[in-house]
Amino acid sequence: MGTAFSSEQQNINSTKGTKTRRRSIPDRLSSELLKKNFTEIENYSLKVCFDNICCVNEDGIAHIDEESFVKYLNFADDIGVGQLLFRSFTYLANYPS
Known about the structure:
There is one protein chain. The protein has 97 residues and is an alpha+beta fold. It has one domain. The protein is built from four helices and four strands. The strands form two sheets. The protein has a two-stranded antiparallel sheet. It has a two-stranded antiparallel ribbon with strand order 3-4. Helix 3 crosses helix 4. It is globular and about 45 Å long. The N and C termini lie close together (12 Å). It comes from Dentiscutata erythropus.
C-alpha cells in the first residue's frame, strides 16, 4: 500500500496489429486481496484516499511519500506522531496477508 500503481501493459499482436491489455501479477494479486478482504465501499474509499494523497515520481509510478501522508493526517509537526505512523504504515504495507 505504500507504493501502489496500475501496471497494465499493452501488447501489440504482430500478426493482427491489435492491442490487448495484460495486468501484471502484483496488480492481479492486489485486486484479489481487495476483493477478498474489503467490501466494495471500502475498496472505493481506499482508492479515493490514495488518489488524494499520492504523488507521482519521474517514472510515472504513483506512491505515498512521508510528507503527503503526514500532511493528510493533519497532526502537529512537533509531536512526531505522523512520522511514526508513516513508518508503521509502510512496514505493514509490505505484508498484505
